[in-house]
Design goal:
The complex is a heterodimer of chains A (about 160) and B (about 525). Chain A is α+β, with helices and mostly antiparallel strands and about 160 residues long. Helices cover about 20% and strands about 20% of the residues of chain A. In chain A, the strands form 2 sheets. In chain A, strands 1-2-6-4-5 form a 5-stranded antiparallel β-sheet. A two-stranded antiparallel sheet of chain A has the order 3-7. The two termini of chain A are about 25 Å apart. Chain B has about 525 residues and is α+β, with helices and mostly antiparallel strands. Chain B contains 19 helices and 18 strands. The chains are: A alpha+beta (about 160), B alpha+beta (about 525). The interface between A and B is large, with 68 and 93 residues. Bound molecules: flavin-adenine dinucleotide (FAD). Flavin-adenine dinucleotide binds next to strand 3, helix 6 and strand 10 of chain B.
C-alpha cells in the first residue's frame, strides 16, 4: 500500500494505513506541530492493532465530549474480505456507529486497513472535563451472548 | 378469530392498551413535514397502527415484545413522536409501544456525576429535575418540549449546547434495552473495550427498545458569557468557528447564520422577538418582514429567482453573517474564554456586535421550531436538512446542497454544531407547489408533495456527492433510507441488516425503518383526501 499517512490540516485529520506505528505517527505529527494528544506514551504497535485493542493511552471521550478519536475508517470483513468504508465526519446520525464493530473488538469481525484519526494542534488548549465514569466495566453474560449473535451473522 | 389486541389483553391483562380510533389516528405518524401535507389535504389517518400499548416497567416492555415475537406482531417504539424522518409510519398490523409512562429518574450519582433515567422521560421536566439537584445533562434539542430520552438516543440527537457537552452519544454510559426476543440486557460503554452502546444508539427502534439509560451529567453552570460577531461572509464565519474549536475552545453555543438567516435573527421575527409580536405586524409565514402570503406563494414558485435575488442584488441590504457565542461554566472562565475568542475573531476581521443578539437567541432558543405550522397553514411547506462534513469538505457541501435545494425551494442556512474536525450545516427551506400549465386543476397539496420529493432527492444526492453525511442528528427513518446504501455502501448496509438480525431475530422491531427499500413506502402519494374506514 502506498499510503502511509496523510494530513488534512484544515480538518486536523490524519489518514493512516493500518500498519503505521502509533509512536512513529505521533513523532511525525509532532514535527508538524500536531499531536494525537494521548495520555500515555504512544505504543509502537500499528494503528489498526491499537484501535482493535481499544486505543490504550487515548484519553477518555468524556474528557472532551466535542472531540473524538476516530472520524472514519476502512476495514475488511474478517471472513469474506468485503470492504466497509465509513467516510470521515465529525458526527453522524445515519444508523448505528459501525466503529463499534472494530474498536476494542480485537479484529474478530473486521480488520482495519485505514483510519482517519482526529489530531490536535500542540499549542491548543487541552480540554479535560472532570468525570468519574468507570472506564471498562466487565462484559456481562447477556452482552457476551449478543456479541456471539453478532459474530454469527456479521461476516 | 380474536383480534390481536384481544389476544394481547388476554395474555397481558395488566398492560394498558387501546385501539380507540382517536388514539390510532393520534399515533399514525411522527412529525416528518411531508405528513403535514397529507394532514392539510384532510388525509389524517392513512398510517394508523392496529393499537397502542403503554407499559409502565421494563418487565412490561419485555412481556409485550415477547408476546409480539410469539405472534409475529411488528412493534414500533414511540417516544414523543417528534422525529422528522418518518421513523414512525405504522400499518394496521403494528402495535405502537409508547414509553411515556416510563419517565422516572431512578437515581443521581453525584460522584460521577450521572443520572439513571427511564427512556420515556420528557426533555423539559427531566432537565428541570436535574437542575434542582445542581446538575445539567447539557442536552437541549429545539424539540426538548416534545421529545424523550429514548427518542434522543434512538435517533442520535444533538442539542443546542453540543459544543461543550457533545451529542447524546457522548453522554451515554449504559443503556438498558429489551431486544427483539424480549430479553432485557444492559449494555455498557467501555473506554478500551468492546461496547454495543454505539450500535443501539441511532438504531431508530429497529434493534431494541431502550427502557433506561445512565447518562453523564455536569454541574449546572453558574456563569454564562454572551457575545455576537458579524462576518462579511458565511465562509469567513465558519473559518473562525473552525479556528476556535481547533484552539481548544468549547463554547456551549456557537451558531453562525448566513446573511438571510442573520437578517431574520437580527430582526427577531423568526426568533420570536418582542419587536415583532403576533398581531401587530405579526411575522409572515417565514418571518419575511411584511411579505404577504400570496406574494410569498408566488415568489416561492420561482425559487431560483428568489435565491439569486438574495445571493445577488439583495445581499448588501441583508447585511453580514451573524455568529452567536455563549460560553458557560463556573466562575470567571466563561468570560475569559469569550474575551480570548473575541480577540481571535477580531484578528480575523469580525465585527463585535455586543451581547444582545446572543442573549436574545438564548431567550427564544426554542421558539423558532414552532413556526412551521403557520407556514403550512398558508399553503406552503418547509423543512430542514442537517448534514455534516470535515472542515475541508464543508465548502463543497454547503454550496452543493444549497444549489441543489435552490432549484426548487427558497433556502437559508446556519451552522450550529461545530467540532475540531468538522461541522454540521443546517439548511432551512420553504417551497410551494409549482404551477402546472398542462394541468391547472392539479391539486395544490399534491403539487407541494411533488416539489417536496424532488427537493429532497436532489439535496440528498448533492450532499453525498460532496462527501458529507446524510444526517448529523435527525436520523434516517424511512425518508432518507432510499439513499442510505450510498451513504454506507453495500457492506455497510448488509452489516446493519445483520446487526438487526442479531438483536431482533424475528424482525419485529420497527420493520422497514432504516433499510432500503423502506416499508411502508414513505413516498407514496398521501396528500389527497381519502376516506377513513373506522
Ligand atoms: C420542532 C422540532 C425541533 C427539533 N429539533 C431537534 C434538535 O434540535 N435536535 C435533534 O437532535 N432533533 C431535533 N428534532 C427531531 C426530534 O425531536 C429528535 O429526533 C428526537 O430525538 C426524537 O425524540 P422522540 O422522543 O420524539 O422520538 P420519536 O419521534 O417518538 O421516535 C424517533 C425514533 O426513535 C425510535 N424510538 C423512540 N423511542 C425509542 C426507545 N425508547 N427505544 C427504541 N427506539 C425508540 C422510534 O421508533 C423512531 O424510529 C426536532 C423535531 C422537531 C419537530
Amino acid at each position: 500500500m502506498s499510503l502511509v499517512f496523510e494530513i488534512d490540516r484544515e480538518s486536523l485529520l490524519v489518514r493512516a494505513a493500518s500498519d503505521v506505528s502509533v509512536a512513529i505517527l505521533e513523532e511525525s505529527l509532532r514535527g508538524e506541530g500536531l499531536t494525537l494528544g494521548l495520555d500515555a506514551a504512544p505504543p509502537s504497535t500499528g494503528v489498526a492493532d491499537w484501535i482493535a485493542h481499544g486505543a490504550p493511552g487515548a484519553s477518555s471521550p468524556y474528557a472532551d465530549p466535542a472531540s473524538h478519536l476516530v472520524a472514519g475508517f476502512v476495514a475488511t470483513r474478517a471472513r469474506s474480505g468485503e470492504v466497509l468504508r465509513v467516510k470521515p465526519s465529525p458526527r453522524r446520525s445515519v444508523g448505528p456507529d459501525l466503529l463499534a464493530l472494530v474498536f476494542g473488538m480485537e479484529g474478530r469481525l473486521f480488520a482495519l486497513t485505514e483510519v482517519h484519526l482526529v489530531v490536535r494542534r500542540q499549542d491548543a488548549e487541552r480540554v479535560n472535563e472532570p468525570h468519574g465514569v468507570r472506564a471498562d466495566p466487565p462484559v456481562s453474560d447477556a452482552e457476551a451472548r449478543l456479541f456471539d449473535a453478532i459474530g454469527g451473522v456479521v461476516w | 378469530m380474536p383480534s390481536r389486541i384481544d389476544d394481547l389483553r388476554r395474555a397481558l391483562p395488566e398492560i394498558r392498551a387501546s385501539d380507540d380510533p382517536a388514539d390510532r389516528v393520534a399515533y399514525a405518524r411522527d412529525l416528518w413535514p411531508r405528513h403535514h401535507l397529507a394532514v392539510r389535504a384532510g388525509n389524517v389517518g392513512a398510517h394508523r397502527p392496529g393499537f397502542i400499548v403503554w407499559p409502565e416497567t421494563t418487565a412490561e416492555v419485555s412481556a409485550v415484545v415477547t408476546w409480539a415475537a410469539r405472534t409475529g406482531t411488528p412493534v414500533v417504539p414511540f417516544g414523543a413522536g417528534s422525529g422528522v424522518c418518518a421513523g414512525i409510519l405504522p400499518t394496521d398490523e403494528v402495535v405502537v409501544l409508547d414509553l411515556k409512562r416510563m419517565g422516572k429518574i431512578r437515581g443521581i450519582d453525584p460522584a460521577v456525576p450521572s443520572v439513571d433515567v427511564e427512556a420515556g422521560a420528557m426533555g423539559v421536566p427531566f432537565e428541570e429535575e436535574l437542575v434542582r439537584a445542581g446538575f445539567t445533562l447539557g442536552h437541549f434539542p429545539s424539540s426538548i418540549l416534545c421529545s424523550t430520552v429514548g427518542g434522543w438516543l434512538a435517533a442520535r440527537s444533538a442539542g443546542q449546547c453540543s459544543g461543550k457537552y457533545g451529542k447524546i452519544e457522548d453522554m451515554a454510559i449504559s443503556l438498558e434495552c429489551v431486544t427483539g426476543t424480549g430479553e432485557v440486557v444492559t449494555l455498557h460503554h467501555r473506554q478500551h473495550g468492546p461496547s454495543l452502546v454505539p450500535i443501539v444508539i441511532g438504531s431508530e427502534g429497529t434493534m431494541a427498545v431502550i427502557t433506561r439509560a445512565t447518562l453523564r451529567l455536569h454541574p449546572a453552570p453558574t456563569t454564562r458569557a454572551y457575545g455576537a460577531f458579524s462576518f462579511p461572509t458565511t465562509e469567513r464565519g465558519w473559518d473562525a468557528m473552525r479556528r476556535a474549536f481547533q484552539a481548544g475552545k468549547r463554547p456551549a453555543v456557537m451558531r453562525l447564520y448566513d446573511p438571510f438567516d442573520a437578517m431574520l435573527a437580527r430582526q427577531g421575527s423568526v426568533k420570536g422577538s418582542p419587536r415583532s409580536p403576533r398581531g401587530e405586524g405579526a411575522p409572515s409565514p417565514l418571518g419575511f418582514p411584511g411579505a404577504g402570503t400570496r406574494a410569498l406563494r408566488r415568489g416561492l414558485q420561482s425559487p431560483r429567482f428568489f435565491n439569486a435575488l438574495v445571493d445577488g442584488p439583495l445581499s448588501i441590504a441583508l447585511g453580514p453573517a451573524l455568529l452567536v457565542v455563549i460560553f458557560e461554566g463556573d466562575g470567571t472562565k466563561p468570560y475569559e474564554d469569550l474575551a480570548e475568542t473575541r480577540r481571535m475573531f477580531e484578528a480575523l476581521g469580525a465585527g463585535w456586535e455586543g451581547e444582545g443578539q446572543a442573549r436574545k437567541w438564548f431567550q427564544h432558543r426554542y421558539s423558532v421550531s414552532y413556526r412551521q405550522a403557520p407556514v403550512f397553514a398558508k399553503g406552503l411547506f418547509s423543512d430542514t436538512m442537517e448534514v455534516a462534513a470535515p472542515w475541508s469538505r464543508l465548502d463543497a457541501v454547503y454550496h452543493g446542497v444549497r444549489k441543489a435545494l435552490g432549484r426548487s425551494v427558497f433556502v437559508m442556512a446556519h451552522l450550529s454544531h461545530a467540532y475540531p474536525d468538522g461541522c454540521c450545516i443546517y439548511f432551512s427551506f420553504a417551497g410551494s407547489a409549482a404551477p402546472d400549465p398542462s394541468n391547472p386543476a392539479a391539486a395544490w397539496d399534491e403539487g407541494c408533495e411533488e416539489v417536496y420529493d424532488r427537493t429532497w432527492k436532489a439535496a440528498m444526492a448533492a450532499v453525498l456527492e460532496a462527501g458529507g453525511v446524510l444526517a448529523h442528528h435527525h436520523g434516517v427513518g424511512r425518508s432518507k433510507a432510499p439513499r442510505l446504501a450510498e451513504e454506507l455502501g453495500g457492506v455497510g448496509m448488509s452489516t446493519v441488516r445483520a446487526l438487526m438480525k442479531a438483536f431482533d431475530p424475528h424482525g419485529i422491531l420497527n420493520p422497514g425503518n432504516l433499510v432500503a427499500p423502506p416499508s411502508p413506502d414513505p413516498y407514496r402519494h398521501d396528500a389527497s383526501p381519502r376516506e377513513i374506514s373506522p
